[in-house]
Amino acid sequence: MWVGTEAWRHVDGLPVVDRCLVMGVVNVTPDSFSDGGEWFEPAAAIKHGRELLAEGADLLDVGGESTRPGAERPAPEEETRRVLPVIEALAADGALISVDTMRAGVAALALDAGAVMINDVSGGQADPDMHALVAERRTPYVCMHWRGHSIDMQNKAEYDDVVAEVIAELGERIEAMRSAGIDLSRVALDPGLGFAKNADHNWEILRRLREFAVLERPLLIGASRKAFLGRLLADEQTGEPRPAVRRDEASAAVSALAAAAGAWCVRAHAVAPSADAVRVAKRWGTV
Ligand SMILES: Nc1nc2ncc(COP(=O)(O)O)nc2c(=O)[nH]1
């Protein structure tokens, strides 16, 4: 039976400990950009989730729809088929699970199967029923900044001031959640790195991360293995981006810096490096 990494204080539903949390990524998809297909079989995904918990993941994010740029959407039934057995098994181990879905129907079944949080990259824009579900079930909810589905989201990466505009658009989401009767004390926000954002936008958001404090909600940062890190670390001779599976050191560096800037949680494919990184950030900032 898995035991939590540290004493949990559920402050109004969102899990909280006295450092930045680490959310391990379990993509049960054939085509996610960073690990597509590796954990597509339930047994492999469950085994991987247990490995991430052993590496120090505070919670696991189980998703059945790839959101990489250009991705085609699976049918709701297929998305459900992918995630439910994995959520059931890992929740039975005692793990804290968020379901990474934009669909209220999938989220409801995931909650019934033992998930304790909904991670919605669309912030409720992809499914008009999502906010009502979150309000009714009083589920801790991650609301990410989003400007449309992966199939064409990079066409919407136009900003005058990306930080000001992402903050404003997340503010609109907060109002929509408030109107839907959602208990905002159970809501975390996420700037959506790589979603309708290019590399410069991502770096500007990270550089100015503290400005998001104006929204007065915990922040989740999902930088792990993303293309902007690959481009930063491109081969100097060939210009070839660093492959996704070799971006974990850079991902951990972002985790440390995001934690130092006050992030509530970081989302990581390789948990161990980021688990160490957030502990370094905590001790560094401790008087
Ligand atoms: N809250 C949140 N959820 C996410 N889900 C998927 C991906 C895409 O990355 P993946 O395909 O490696 O999971 N990124 C995020 C993110 O940045 N934030």
UniProtKB/TrEMBL annotation:
<dbReference type="Pfam" id="PF00809">
    <property type="entry name" value="Pterin_bind"/>
</dbReference>
<dbReference type="InterPro" id="IPR045031">
    <property type="entry name" value="DHP_synth-like"/>
</dbReference>
<dbReference type="GO" id="GO:0046654">
    <property type="term" value="P:tetrahydrofolate biosynthetic process"/>
</dbReference>
<dbReference type="GO" id="GO:0004156">
    <property type="term" value="F:dihydropteroate synthase activity"/>
</dbReference>
<feature type="domain" description="Pterin-binding">
    <location>
        <begin position="20"/>
        <end position="279"/>
    </location>
</feature>
<dbReference type="GO" id="GO:0046656">
    <property type="term" value="P:folic acid biosynthetic process"/>
</dbReference>
<dbReference type="InterPro" id="IPR006390">
    <property type="entry name" value="DHP_synth_dom"/>
</dbReference>
<keyword id="KW-0808">Transferase</keyword>
<keyword id="KW-0289">Folate biosynthesis</keyword>
<keyword id="KW-0479">Metal-binding</keyword>
<protein>
    <recommendedName>
        <fullName>Dihydropteroate synthase</fullName>
        <ecNumber>2.5.1.15</ecNumber>
    </recommendedName>
</protein>
<comment type="function">
    <text>Catalyzes the condensation of para-aminobenzoate (pABA) with 6-hydroxymethyl-7,8-dihydropterin diphosphate (DHPt-PP) to form 7,8-dihydropteroate (H2Pte), the immediate precursor of folate derivatives.</text>
</comment>
<comment type="pathway">
    <text>Cofactor biosynthesis; tetrahydrofolate biosynthesis; 7,8-dihydrofolate from 2-amino-4-hydroxy-6-hydroxymethyl-7,8-dihydropteridine diphosphate and 4-aminobenzoate: step 1/2.</text>
</comment>
<keyword id="KW-0460">Magnesium</keyword>
<dbReference type="GO" id="GO:0046872">
    <property type="term" value="F:metal ion binding"/>
</dbReference>
<dbReference type="InterPro" id="IPR011005">
    <property type="entry name" value="Dihydropteroate_synth-like_sf"/>
</dbReference>
<dbReference type="GO" id="GO:0005829">
    <property type="term" value="C:cytosol"/>
</dbReference>
<comment type="similarity">
    <text>Belongs to the DHPS family.</text>
</comment>
<dbReference type="InterPro" id="IPR000489">
    <property type="entry name" value="Pterin-binding_dom"/>
</dbReference>
